[in-house]
Amino acid sequence: MSWEAYLMFALIPGFLAGLLVVIGKLSGWARLAERYAADREPDDGTYFRGQFFRIGWCDYNGCMTIRVAPDGIYLAVWPIFVGHAPLLIPWSAVWLVEEQRERWFAFVLIDVGQPPLARLRLPLRVIDAGRQWLQPAQPTA
Question: What is the pTM (predicted TM-score) of this model?
Answer without folding.
Answer: 0.82
